[in-house]
Amino acid sequence: MRVIKQKPMTWGERLYIFEALRGLFTTLKHAARGLFRYEELPTISYPEGQPEVRNTYRAKHRLMLRPDGSPRCVACGMCAAACPAHCIFIEATASDDPRIEKKVKRFDIDHLTCVFCGLCAEACPVDALRMDTKKISFEHRSREEFVAHLEDLTNWDPKDYPDDEQSQVAPGGTKNAEARKVWGMEVK
Amino acid sequence: MSNYYNMPKLPTENSPKVEIFVDDKPVMVPGDTNLLEALKAVGIETPHVCYHPYLPVSGNCRQCLVEQEGPRGRMLVIACYTPVSPGMKIYTPASSARVKNARKATQEFMLVNHPLDCPICDKAGECTLQENYMEAGQNESRMRPEYGKNYHGNPEHQFIDAKGQLRGGKHVDLGPRVLLDEERCVQCDRCVRFMRSIAGSEQLQLAGRADHTYITTFPGEKLDHEYDLCVTDVCPVGAMTAKYFRFQKRVWLLSHTPTVSMDDSLGANIWLDYADGHIYRVMPRCNPVVNRSWLSNTSRLAFQEFDKNRLPSMEVHTPAFGNGKIAIVAGGTCTLEDLAAIRMLKEKLGDRAEIFGGSLLKVDAPDGIAKSGDPVANRAGMKLLGFADVADFMKRASEFETLVTVNADLFGEDPAAAGVLEKINCRVAITPFDDATAKKATIAMGVRHWSEVQGTMVNSLNMLQKLNACPVCPDENLWAAYQVVSYMAGSKFEAAADAFKKAGEYAPVLAGLTYDAIKSTGKLLEGGEA
């Protein structure tokens, strides 16, 4: 343990008025910088200015798509099992495609309960669930709207993920036509 | 029953104890059984795939290998087909690296061409292969991406999947209730043995040889039997799946209530598997004396109707019983508690009331598996509590002015014969369902279904069996039938235990018993098997 002895104030400091003016000057300095040299401010004026989000940031979820546009999710429930907040609700049904067994019928994530830990994306065995949308703000009118459904989660644009090959396989992506050829192999 | 394979002898309480040496330590085990069961009796689990205690031993999976000291040294033998003999020396993986390696190698071969379907497999969570992998396997995969898995199965069902890989048959339609996945099948032939030896109708066969073997039905035939859903239970992997439960729920999300199926007087022991207020499936609960581990499709699929067409809860009030004679008819699903309450109501009403039990459905012959054929589940309990048969009531129906039916759908069971009942002025129906009798009744009161109440029943083997309440009641305010009837009699039973105590007053054989005294497999009542 170290004892730091406070320095006694000088008489100038004890006069109070000079120190108060010095503090006011700092405040005024920053206020003036906001007015005249805005770009030098260390803060951003949210929501007009958006923060830079890295793609490893755990943001809102999305569900990856197969070349034919169906969600990749096989409704195994691993994400729901891994979820510490119990905010994922999944119902499964049999797939129409004879080559695929199981597909997802309902996939709801309650973003009011979600703790954005990323364990669901980690648990997914088919890389269907990702948290790389960079959407970090959630504003809705009612509690129900905070629950993201299957349609919300699959509604994303491959153009927003230009560097991600897996995203380009989805309809509208640059690799979709190629992937469709492989995908559309006839059933024997 | 076929004698082609041998049924395993299971240890009982009366088994003679013999001393054997397990890992050089002397232990006392049941002497009249196989090694696998003997080791299980002393707490040593042996992984196995093809062995099932109620199916003939086939010994084809080689997963239960142990080492036995013999005249030619220590040899690997399969525990499921080796009888216990006094003084035998057994080595388990606890002391023998050879056994450990052998089991691991067996496990590895079994998984070589097994698909990585666990995420979408309905068996995941209760799969024998998964359990064995954790216990005996845990080997790293030696599969190389360049040669991958080699799925066989029926060549007609092979297809190329979305990744361009040749796959074995998925969701092959075996019959009206069962689907087969040929990739997942490990050819343990449990289902074949079940259909051959237990169901007595050989509808499944192993076709092909070696790793081309697959399960199939005869050409043009389908798997269709009263017990065909049992093949999904005996299947150690997810090869046989029931259509009704396919993709409904992951099994680890289900909670289980042990209870008794009240649609047959054998009272098959069942698990009600439920989640978020719904029953998702009914599984047989092993009871060596009653239904072993089998369950008929009728009992298994009955749950689909449990929460449909229900009567809502309403204020219970005692009807004015008038001055004429009163008949109280208890249906087959009445528990002993309901019967005790009815008996109490009868005592209160005096001599003008008579009590009857049973149904108008006809009694079939027992099938020797898990059904006695009698639709009146608690017929033995009715006898104990002094209920006359409902046929007697039907003959004298014109004598009565009031009819109270408890869980008895007389109009639905036999509309023609029940026509005479319409002459009875006052008809009170106490029933869970809005059935034909409830529709024709003067007053209908909703009660809880047998799956939602605690209670007891006496089955056709004179065994007292316990029902437990599954928390799936659609209306929390519903009363159990014994509560409604006892309320009418003037003193409401708050708990099922009070009603059971009352039943003990009427039937001396039940006196002094409590719910805790009834084991999960039931209690044989004095007087032996009926």
Question: Can you offer a commentary on this structure?
Answer:
The complex is a heterodimer of chains A (188) and B (530). Chain A has helices at 11-14, 17-36, 78-82, 119-123, 150-154, 165-168, 176-183; strands at residues 62-63, 88-94, 102-110, 129-130, 147-148. Chain A is α+β, with helices and mostly antiparallel strands. Helices cover 27% and strands 12% of the residues of chain A. Chain A contains seven helices and five strands, in the order ααβαββαββααα. Chain A folds into two domains: 11-42; 62-176, Alpha-Beta Plaits. Chain A has a three-stranded antiparallel sheet. The model of chain B has no long low-confidence stretch (mean pLDDT 91). Chain B is of the alpha/beta class. In chain B, 20% of the residues lie in helices and 20% in strands. The radius of gyration of chain B is 27 Å and the shape is elongated. The longest helix of chain B has 16 residues, at 97-112. Chain B folds into three domains: 17-110, Ubiquitin-like (UB roll); 113-253, 2-Layer Sandwich (Alpha-Beta Plaits), CATH 3.30.70.20; 325-524, Rossmann fold (3-Layer(aba) Sandwich), CATH 3.40.50.740. Chain B is built from 13 helices and 24 strands. Chain B has a six-stranded parallel sheet. In chain B, strands 2-1-5-3-4 form a five-stranded mixed sheet, sandwiched between helices. Chain B has helices at 35-41, 97-112, 128-137, 190-198, 230-234, 297-301, 336-349, 379-384, 390-395, 410-413, 436-440, 481-489, 496-506, and strands spanning 17-22, 25-30, 65-70, 73-78, 89-91, 159-160, 166-167, 172-173, 178-180, 204-207, 214-217, 240-242, 255-260, 269-275, 278-284, 325-330, 353-357, 388-389, 400-406, 426-431, 443-446, 455-458, 463-467, 523-524. Chain A binds chain B through residues 66, 74-78, 81, 92-94, 97-102, 125-126, 182-183, 185-188, and chain B through 117-120, 158-164, 167, 170-171, 246-248, 250, 252-253.
